[in-house]
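Q: Can someone sanity-check these two? First one:
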Amino acid sequence: MSQTPKRGLGKGLGKGFEALISNDFDKSLLLTSEDRIEKIPIAKLQPGKHQPRTSFDETALKELAASIKRHGVVQPLVVTPEKDGKYSLVAGERRWRASKIAGLKDVPAIVRERQELDQLEIALIENVQRVDLSPLEQAVSIERLHEQFNLSYEEIAGRLGKGVSTVSNTVRLLQLPEAAQSALAKSKITEGHARALLSLKDDTKRQNYLLKTIINNGWSVRQAERFTTSVKAGVKETKQAHARTQTETAETKRLSKKIDAPVHLKRTARGGKLEITFNDDQDLVRIINRFL
């Protein structure tokens, strides 16, 4: 499964990740803790057995190695001790590889016993399943499982009892710009609105326009989707795309009056359809006869 690009973990949440963990959870186990950091010889480190990433961009590794030469390893690796005196990487294999290229002899690491990691993993999984957790908060927890436990999204989906597409769509919320994340966190927009906004991630101007219009005009998810559909259909003018979100036009109103039935326009990426509402079979026959 391809990696999902991210924009930082929940910038619009207004609170740190630690606040999402239940009160009875031992926060000293969090991987962001700065204590218990040790200098581990690079020669004693080995890739984790369940690392989902099998290939690394050599150019990117060299760039990271150059940064490490200048600034050192800013974020410590996370490792578990093995019986042979070595350590298996839980998180930070890319930093480990780049450190070797940079010529480092040892790297900073947080040593965690497997039991501690299992406890944190369980806590995170339970956290995602909380009914009071917002979509963005779920995305942050899922991404933490992916990044710091080297779990693929398929594995996370299996442990959560959710579909892979559901997990992927949740994580994609982290691609939202900060303003949209904030609006979602404050319930100014819904997750459906957020997905419509994500479909315009390569068109920042119209994405910002759509966000403001949803908030200021109270657009429904359907209206937001019709706007994005018009943009994808090649409508270049924002005002024209806005106009195409309307389900009623002068023409549909004339037709509605002629057949004495509600008529609505539903646009798709290619063309669209007219929807005529009827009350029962007798009404349907009446409408059809108007066209014959």
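And here is the second, same format, sequence then tokens:
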Amino acid sequence: MRLDSALTILDKPKHKQVAFERARSLQELNGTHLDLVSFCWQSMVESSDFFDTHQRRTLRQEILLERKQWQRDLVLDGGLAFNDVSIHTIWTDDIAAWVRKQLEKKHCDIVIKSVHKTKTISHTPLDWELLNTSPVPVLLTSTQKRKTARRVVAAIDLRHTDRTHQRLNRKVLAAADRFARCYDAELHCVSAIEISNVLRDLDIIDERSTKKRMLEKSQDTLNDLLKPYDVKKKQRHFPVGKVGQAVTQTARELKADLLVVGSCAHRVKQLVGVGNSAERILARATCDVLAVHP
């Protein structure tokens, strides 16, 4: 995975600029060129019930100029050089559509955005839309304060051995390894093992022996996937349980800085290695989450 350029969606000025800080660290460590985008929109300004055409145009220009100056101050305060960044100040209420069109015009290796969750602990529609439609990996940066241990966790799927799933597993591992090397972090992998609770509770199957049998069956696939990387046995995790809960719990226990998952066919709800538990993973994760597409 290349990290030569990053499209970074800035938060509103009143918020802490978490995405900007992640992007700034990438530039310091990797020389990544940053496209910093700030979005403005005021529905009242667009309403003819309040202002005439000239007034609306004037107000838009004043708001955009003020925001652009704030962006320039942010760059200067962050110690960045203007030749290493590009500033975009955009008037729109459809951020995902603008991002999609921008990526069609100008390639970026990654989109960076801070996570925003609703009171129900689910992601906002914008987060989901970006994850669903972005043609490049999306890094959602966590705003939660937490202790980290310089660890990057790659969530892989060992249940499916077809070419498509294995190709995406390799992309997930390559992306995780790229970030681990960039941040001098330890690379871990996690693959959840789902065992029927009904059969287990009825003592029809034994969890320990079933897990052992499933791991033996996937051992060759796992060794082939991990061959290019330095992932020792103690850095390989196979929790038993629902995928969403098991993966995020493992990342939490490891105090991971980043969890890397694969999204199949650009549909977040079919994350490879995550299955239909994508929403739970992204809602539960306390660390940064990188979604990688096929």
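A (reply): Looked at the second one. The two ends are 12 Å apart (CA to CA). The CA atoms of residues 33 and 144 lie 26 Å apart.
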